[in-house]
# Entry
Amino acid sequence: MKVGNVDIVPILDGTARLPIGNTVTHRRDARWDCAHQPLDEHGRIHMDIGAFLVRLGDRTILVDAGAGDDFVHEGFVTGWLPANLRRAGVALDDVTDVVFTHLHPDHVGWATVRGEVTFPRATFRVHEADWAYFMAAPTADPVLQETLAPIEGRLEMFDEETELVPGLLARPAPGHTPGSTVFVVSDAGERALLLGDVVHTVGELTDPEWEGMFDVDRAAANAIRERIAAELAASGDPFAPAHFPELSFGRLITADGLRRFSWA
# Structure
């Protein structure tokens, strides 16, 4: 995806096939009928995992860090991110910044490998509410604590909308997790939004009665998703959630009072 003079490059770490009932639910129990993301013969939806590579000036930025090479969950195959970074012409020590949309394990897995920081020159950034929730509060996750503890000395946190580097805006969007964040990449009057897990599927954008199954605060997540969907339909800006197939970008428009999706 080109935004002004800036390229946003999806970097796949892996793929997943998940039962639709484990991914989203409908308030009136409608059946999944989304031509943009059809189910396979086993009723599973195709979702991918990875990161987005953004080069801004002298900064080489990763938005999220995939699931890692030891992420073991049924339906997932991961571990490709370093090789795919190399294919994009980026070595691990070229990365200057890693920014997290949130701290679920499939977004932070390559932050470290067996206790060593994977990106030795990088500064890491995350909303402080997610760090508190997953690392310090009674809700802390021991696996995440072990994964992320080595980056703490090079971690910077934010708690409000802020431009982290010129052309990269962090916009808090709590609900999926307490510190979920949307990143807005802008250049030359254009912009694109990296949504993280604010939305997982096309259906959640075109029919607000579809809801995600993994949200910490479902009511807040629904409200944020609806607000962002309305903004995207009005602006026509391209956007990419974290788990669309191939980490692809899409656009929304409003036609005949309904939101319509197309791949960008």
